[in-house]
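> example.struct
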């Protein structure tokens, strides 16, 4: 059995690796989606400027497809070397979904190659149809991997309500984060070049409309997910909201925390707020942390992370709605320079939201690797030789991250020269 030092070491290594991997994964899902949406518009409106953006997104997606292979291989190596006991326990239940994830990626890669080769050689409508499986394959990869994670959180069955909400909430968040990255890049180009062209402003407006739709969907899914959490993972919800006692009229607490005696204190308290959120009634009984011994509590830092996430959701929503309003205001169809700067600066907020969401999910499951079945300390390797080379994985991801930024920069410069882009 691993000692606690080794387990924390393993958690840090896994957290670092997945923190990088999720960035590559979400963009490889989101960019094809944005590409398909914009190509459909370009096809129907015969818009060459939009087609140019589609070709840029095609280049970005190609880079990320290659990076995805490398990143996924590193993660697989890390699991095999450092988390052998977990693999042995999980394989009989969810091993097939790792295989299906590989097939889904194969669909994405093959259609991406066909999509690039067929550009300009088939009708616009056929080319758009060829591109759809790229998005579907990428989303399929996310679905199969997320099924595994949902099972780790709720292993009562392979497919549960937890599976549905984890998949839908996370994939919608990936799409929002990717749309925001594209908005941020366009805003940065407007800011840097001081262009007088109307098209980049129009593009930010259209993508902001798409972002608003995704924000609404994510908000509805988030509320439904919280209610499902109260039924399927009540201790995680109690940790997120630092609810110390079980009962009706459970308060919703913003800020604050748990003191040494195990009582919630501080922050802004909304009476009966959590009961209403979880069960649509002040009389709804919500389970608190008192239902489990302290050594089975989730890591309570998830409360602070959740508060930070909600603040960030408010900022993203305000910036998005503000951009739509400013574009339409006075009919000028131009965004103020200060807003363009703000959009560029906040463009990575979507990625940060995804990171926070997964941190809450994973830290909220602790001390379990598979909830109720396998503790994290029993899932980590006891092989000292394996531990001694563990540092190589975050190093590899740092190098890969730098190489990815360089590759994206190169293909973007080549695109600007080829397409004669002046902004």
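> example.seq
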């Amino acid at each position: 059995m691993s000692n606690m030092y080794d387990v924390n070491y393993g958690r840090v290594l896994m957290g670092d690796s997945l923190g990088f991997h999720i960035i590559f994964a979400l963009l490889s899902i989101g960019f094809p989606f944005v590409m398909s949406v914009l190509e459909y518009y370009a096809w129907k409106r015969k818009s060459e400027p939009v087609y140019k953006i589609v070709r840029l997104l095609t280049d970005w997606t190609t880079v990320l497809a290659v990076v995805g292979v490398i990143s996924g291989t590193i993660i697989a190596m890390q699991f095999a070397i450092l988390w052998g006991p977990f693999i042995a326990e999980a394989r009989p239940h969810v091993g097939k979904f790792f295989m299906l994830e590989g097939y889904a990626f194969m669909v994405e890669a093959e259609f991406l190659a066909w999509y690039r080769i067929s550009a300009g050689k088939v009708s616009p409508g056929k080319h758009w149809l060829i591109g759809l499986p790229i998005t579907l394959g990428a989303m399929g990869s996310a679905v199969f991997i997320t099924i595994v994670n949902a099972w780790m959180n709720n292993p009562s069955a392979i497919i549960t309500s937890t599976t549905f909400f984890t998949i839908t909430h996370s994939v919608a968040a990936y799409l929002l984060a990717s749309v925001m990255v594209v908005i941020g890049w366009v805003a940065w180009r407007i800011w840097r070049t001081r262009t007088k062209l109307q098209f980049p402003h129009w593009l930010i407006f259209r993508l902001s409309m798409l972002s608003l739709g995704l924000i609404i969907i994510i908000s509805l899914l988030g509320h439904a997910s919280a209610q499902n959490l109260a039924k399927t993972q009540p201790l995680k919800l109690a940790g997120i909201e630092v609810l110390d006692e079980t009962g009706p009229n459970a308060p919703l607490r913003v800020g604050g925390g748990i003191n040494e005696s195990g009582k919630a204190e501080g922050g802004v308290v909304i009476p009966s707020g959590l009961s209403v959120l979880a069960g649509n009634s002040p009389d709804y009984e919500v389970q608190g942390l008192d239902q489990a011994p302290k050594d089975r509590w989730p890591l309570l830092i998830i409360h602070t992370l959740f508060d930070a996430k909600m603040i960030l959701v408010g900022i993203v929503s305000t910036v998005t709605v503000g951009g739509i309003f400013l574009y339409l205001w006075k009919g000028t169809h131009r965004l103020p320079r200060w807003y363009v700067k703000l959009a560029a600066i906040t463009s990575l907020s979507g990625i940060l939201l995804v990171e926070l969401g997964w941190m809450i999910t994973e830290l909220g499951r602790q001390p379990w690797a598979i909830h109720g079945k396998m503790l994290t300390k029993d899932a980590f390797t006891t092989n000292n030789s394996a531990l001694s080379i563990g540092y190589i994985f975050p190093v590899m991801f740092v190098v890969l991250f730098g190489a990815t930024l360089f590759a994206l920069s190169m293909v973007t410069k080549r695109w600007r020269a080829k397409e004669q882009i002046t902004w």
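> remarks
The first strand starts at residue 252 and ends at 254.
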